């Protein structure tokens, strides 16, 4: 066998099995109950009954109400209460409004229904069912992980997009009244059940399919590159990435492609199952960029635009993992993602999205404070974050 044939095998082996002493002790947990399948939504009443929930608060948004989907799902239940005030990016004011509805209606459980914003809002409301406000004290960056306990309401998460994977994530990412976009993280805040029905994504428009799909793929990529030792997370991230690579263009082109919709939901699910290992510089930047109120930028679109530059930034620090990604994509990963972005209609750069040099200056400092900053394989300085954004402009 030639040396050229052996090299990819060696790269794959080294990426999966680091040398002894090259990693610290690790805590590995997987994760929560997942009910996955077409048509599974009809079992929602049974799942709520299992959890002892008689009057759930459904956290969703007005757009989804307008499609008729919320009414159809609420019609499966006997006594639901609907909060449809989730904004495009979940914020503290909406969380407090939803919690007031939960309390006033004497609800005893929560259903998060929608994209990542609705699911994150539902998880933040859930924290408040057992904890006193203000909400910002429970952000991970403020030492909030240890403040959250398990005496909170049951929750079922039902995604209607294939992007954030919030249905199996520990975090609720919320725009706080202080102006910061912060992650509230706790293993106690994993939804009691993730109810994943690909049929709920069939009507998703092409642009949103592309943006949410790139969000999911960025989770798989950043998790795989993260330096902590977690072989199950690496394996799950790569499987999710493979699913996304094979499905995203088909899902964007033909939203009724059942296999593509299923595989994109798998990509989103597995990206979030794996990112307990840690994300990185893409998300350290997209969190503060997403908190710029006057722009209201979509998280997945930001991830797509920033990923090529972050891949280049990380290349020297991820060793043979670069070769593993290159083998899957058939070319340099940064070039592949850049070309994929163009094919599926992502913006040409941050400047085209309205991000100005002054905004970049501010975000570069804020990225250093994000909870994803410390888990990138190469720790960036403020100037390096600024350079990544300029490279993505």
From TrEMBL:
<dbReference type="InterPro" id="IPR056798">
    <property type="entry name" value="ADH_Fe_C"/>
</dbReference>
<feature type="domain" description="Fe-containing alcohol dehydrogenase-like C-terminal">
    <location>
        <begin position="209"/>
        <end position="392"/>
    </location>
</feature>
<dbReference type="Pfam" id="PF00465">
    <property type="entry name" value="Fe-ADH"/>
</dbReference>
<keyword id="KW-0520">NAD</keyword>
<dbReference type="InterPro" id="IPR018211">
    <property type="entry name" value="ADH_Fe_CS"/>
</dbReference>
<protein>
    <submittedName>
        <fullName>Alcohol dehydrogenase</fullName>
    </submittedName>
</protein>
<comment type="similarity">
    <text>Belongs to the iron-containing alcohol dehydrogenase family.</text>
</comment>
<dbReference type="GO" id="GO:0046872">
    <property type="term" value="F:metal ion binding"/>
</dbReference>
<dbReference type="Pfam" id="PF25137">
    <property type="entry name" value="ADH_Fe_C"/>
</dbReference>
<feature type="domain" description="Alcohol dehydrogenase iron-type/glycerol dehydrogenase GldA">
    <location>
        <begin position="32"/>
        <end position="198"/>
    </location>
</feature>
<dbReference type="GO" id="GO:0004022">
    <property type="term" value="F:alcohol dehydrogenase (NAD+) activity"/>
</dbReference>
<dbReference type="InterPro" id="IPR039697">
    <property type="entry name" value="Alcohol_dehydrogenase_Fe"/>
</dbReference>
<dbReference type="InterPro" id="IPR001670">
    <property type="entry name" value="ADH_Fe/GldA"/>
</dbReference>
<keyword id="KW-0560">Oxidoreductase</keyword>
């Amino acid at each position: 066998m030639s040396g050229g044939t052996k090299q990819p095998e060696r790269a794959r082996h080294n990426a999966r099995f680091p040398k002894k002493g090259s990693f610290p002790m690790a805590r590995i947990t997987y994760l929560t109950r997942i009910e996955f399948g077409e048509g599974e939504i009809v079992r929602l009443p049974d799942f709520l009954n299992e959890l002892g929930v008689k009057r759930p608060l459904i956290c969703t948004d007005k757009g989804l109400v307008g499609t008729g989907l919320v009414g159809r799902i609420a019609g499966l239940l006997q006594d639901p209460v609907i909060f449809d005030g989730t904004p495009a990016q979940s914020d503290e004011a909406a969380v407090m409004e939803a919690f007031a509805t939960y309390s006033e209606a004497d609800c005893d459980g929560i259903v998060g229904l929608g994209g990542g914003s609705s699911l994150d809002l539902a998880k933040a409301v859930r924290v408040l069912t057992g904890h006193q406000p203000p909400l910002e004290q429970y952000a991970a960056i403020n030492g909030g992980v240890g403040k959250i306990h398990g005496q909170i309401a049951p929750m079922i998460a039902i995604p209607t997009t294939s992007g954030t994977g919030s249905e199996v994530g520990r975090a609720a990412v919320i725009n706080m009244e202080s102006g910061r976009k912060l992650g509230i993280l706790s293993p106690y805040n994993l939804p009691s059940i993730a109810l994943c029905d690909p049929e709920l994504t069939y009507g998703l428009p092409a642009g949103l399919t592309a943006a949410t799909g790139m969000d999911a793929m960025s989770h798989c990529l950043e998790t795989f590159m993260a330096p902590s030792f977690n072989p199950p997370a690496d394996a799950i991230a790569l499987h999710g990435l493979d699913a996304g690579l094979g499905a995203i263009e088909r899902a964007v082109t033909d939203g009724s492609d059942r296999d593509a919709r299923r595989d994109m939901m798998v990509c989103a699910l597995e990206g979030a199952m794996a990112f307990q290992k840690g994300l990185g510089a893409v998300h350290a930047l997209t969190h503060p960029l997403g908190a710029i109120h006057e722009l209201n930028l979509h998280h997945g679109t930001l991830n797509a635009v920033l990923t090529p530059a972050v891949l280049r930034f990380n290349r020297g620090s991820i060793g043979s993992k670069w070769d593993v990604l290159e083998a899957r994509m058939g070319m340099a990963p940064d070039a592949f993602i850049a070309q994929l972005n163009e094919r599926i209609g992502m913006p040409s750069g941050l400047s085209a999205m309205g991000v100005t040099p002054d905004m970049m200056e501010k975000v570069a400092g804020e990225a250093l404070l994000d909870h994803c900053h410390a888990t990138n394989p190469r720790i960036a300085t403020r100037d390096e974050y600024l350079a990544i954004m300029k490279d993505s402009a």
